[in-house]
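This section describes the prediction task in plain terms. A model, or a person checking by hand, is given the sequence of a single protein chain and must write out its three-dimensional structure as a string of tokens. No templates, partner chains or ligands are provided. The sample shown here is typical of the held-out split.
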Amino acid sequence: MLSIRPAQAADVPTILKLVRGLAEYEHEPESAEATEEDLLRDGFGPQPKFHCLLAEWDGAVAGFALYFFNYSTWKGRPGIFLDDLFVWPELRGRGIGKALLLEVGRIAVANHCGRYEWLVLDWNTPAIEFYEALGARRMRQWVPVRVEGEALERLAQKH
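The expected answer:
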């Protein structure tokens, strides 16, 4: 049986395992640098920077959706960005990922969001097809841009 619930501070070790599972799936296990302390501070402090839903199948954690709110000046409304969606491989095909995706969608609507966005790796054809079947569309004209690590430090020091 499937249930979805908001994550609690006590779930941080489980969330970190799921984050690492996702990084492994995406062939970048070394990129998952977050620690339990990071997740606890940023997700469960006085001003959470993210929100997390846990999906449980027969009482055991099966997957998660981690999202945060942003703002669209064009829409004049908040939006939701789904940063992570992951279900343990042995539990896929049971509707768990879809249920998580839909629950975040309900949260977006309840918060009057104008957008619900996420990224998918171009090689992840099953996920792309799954998202498109739910009505999502690829934003081919938009190119993700990122500054991180030492480059971010240098950027912050520029005048």
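For orientation: The helical segments are 12-25, 36-44, 96-110, 125-133, 149-157.
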